[in-house]
Structures are given as C-alpha cells and as structure tokens.
Amino acid sequence: MSATERIAIGSIFVGILVLSLKTLSWWLTGSVALLSDAMESIVNVATAVAALIAIRVAARPADREHPYGHHKAEFFSAVLEGAMIIVAALLILREAVHGFMNPRVLDAPLEGLLINIGASVINAWWCWVLISRGRKLRSPALLADGHHLLSDVLSSGGVVIGVTLAVISGWAVLDPALAALVAVNILWSGWKVMTRSLSGLMDEAVAEDTLDKIRGTISDHATGAIEAHDLRTRHAGPKTFIDFHLVVDGQTTVEQAHDICDRVEQALRRELPESTITIHVEPEHKAKHSGVLVI
After folding, report:
1. Could you please report the per-residue DSSP string of 222-238?
2. Which of 81, 93, 121, 237 sits at 20 to 30 Å (Cα–Cα) from 67?
C-alpha cells in the first residue's frame, strides 16, 4: 500500500471521528451554526472515501485502453469534492433560513463549544498532514482534501466565536447568521477546489519554477546537441509529461544522438522521478535558434 493510500484511509477515520464530535456538539446545543459545521464534516467523510477510490484508480498501470495511465483520476475526485462542498453549503443556507425564521436560545453551550473546539483541533492537525504530504507526494486528491479541511478549520473557529457571542449577548439571531457566513465560506472553498482541479484536467503546464528546472537540466546535460525547442509539459497527479525537439549536428550518428537523449532523460528523472519524457531528434537545419541552448 502506498503512502498516499495510507493517508487517504487515515482521512476517512479522522473524518468519522470529527463528524461524531461535531454532531454531539450540535445535539447538546441545538445551534444551527454548529449543525452547519457538522454537515460540512459529512462532506469531509464522503470526499475522503472518493479520494481513496481515485488514488487507487490513479495508481493502476497503463493498459491498452489507457496507454498514458490513470493519473487523472485524482483530478476527477477533486472536482467531485468541490461539487459536494457546494451542495453542503446550499443545505447549510437552508438551515440558516429556518434559523432566522425561528431563532432559539441555545442549550448547554459550554459543553457543546468545548467538544467542537476539540474536533477543530483534530481537523487542524490532519489538515497540516494532508497539505504537507499532498505537496510532497504531488497528489491532487490529498491537496484538495487538505485545502477543504483548512476552510473547515477557519469556519469552525468563526462558528465558535459567533456562538459564544450569541450566548453572551442573548441575540439568538447571531446563530443562524453565523451559519449563513459558514455557507458562503464553504461555497468559495468549493469553487477554488473545482477550478484548481479543472486546470489539471485541461492539461495545464507545470509551474514556472519546475519549467525553469527542466530547461536548466536539458541545457546542462545535452552536451553534443545544439539546442532544444518546442518544449511542452503537462501534469497529471504525481506524473509529469515532458516532450521537446532536440537538434543535433548533421554528422551525429544515431547511436550518438541516442546516448545524448539517454543522458538527458536520466537527468530529468533525477529531478522529476515521476516523469514521462519524449524527445524528437532533428538535424541541424531544423534549428529554430530559440528555446533551450545547450551549454
């Protein structure tokens, strides 16, 4: 089992634990704002399950029907997560409207708030795990889950403050008002998750700093060639695809050109272990005098 799968399984257990605590918090207080917090945790559990399925599909090797692999499955998971977040936000808005129409004094606020704070601390710790490990493992599914949890942690903090103010001031209407603000925050979080994932489905190029690293690696290790041009990149989960044209002297033999390509590919894979590289060798008269000049 890969590290990514282990973290995804951990997300399910953490999500169930946090959901149980937040549901208990709502049950003790009757707070609409705390109910909205618990409803978002339902989404957390569902998306954690979807992320695990997507990670397992993405790990499958290439086959006849999918010769480039299944890496984009993680992006579909992240898009699904964004959609589910938006649905949760709309449900919370509905509860907030009911709360505005029938405001009520909260029951056992201290116990409920303390339980909610404990759940938020667990979420904050797991959010850090997901984002840090997701970046290291280059997993869109883990990153999407982590950024969603970060939004959950921030909104939970606002809910605790708001419910506390509602209890102290006696303004019951503050409770549904906080629930509505949580819903708006969740909507924004869902939109960001979806747009970030859609860019991957649209074959977005690698980040500029990674592109500079690729250019530098080609320039440093393509000794014997003249230039590299038409460099293109895209990423799909942990996988990076790189292709470019490599111009060599017209007198270069096939074996010599092959050795140069091997040297460049090995260097690129040291920099980007999960990469697929395609190099098209061209004779000198095809040079464009642009792109990557070989040192």
Report:
1. -BTEEEEEEEEEEEETT
2. 81
Residue 17 has pLDDT above 90, yes or no: yes
Domain spans in the chain, listed from the N-terminal domain onward: 3-201, 208-293
Cα(56)–Cα(74) distance, integer angstroms: 9
- Which of helix, strand or coil describes residue 200? helix
Q: What is the identity of the amino acid at 65?
A: E
- Would you say the C-alpha torsion 31, 190, 119, 169 has a positive or negative sign? negative
CA dist 85 and 187 (Å) reads 7
Domain 3-201, what architecture? Up-down Bundle (1.20)
Beta-strand relationship, 292-293 and 225-236: antiparallel
**How many Å is the Cα radius of gyration of the chain?**
25
Six-digit token string for 131:
């984002």
Please return the burial class of 118, using the count of CB atoms within 10 Å of its CB with bins 0-12, 13-18 and 19+: middle
What Cα–Cα distance (Å) separates residue 94 from each residue in 34, 44, 62, 176, 216? 14, 19, 45, 10, 54
Report pTM. Answer: 0.60
Q: How far apart are CA 190 and CA 151, in angstroms?
A: 9
**Fold of the domain built from segment(s) 208-293:** Alpha-Beta Plaits (3.30.70)
Are residues 18 and 122 in contact, defined by beta-carbon separation less than 8 angstroms? Answer: yes
Q: What is the pLDDT of residues 64-89, one digit of tens each?
A: 877 777 767 767 766 777 777 777 77
Using CA atoms of 52, 53, 59, 61 in order, give the dihedral in degrees to the nearest 10. Answer: 170
Helices (H), the chain: 3-29, 32-58, 73-101, 109-137, 140-169, 174-201, 208-221, 254-271
Contact criterion met (CB below 8 Å) for 281 and 246 = yes
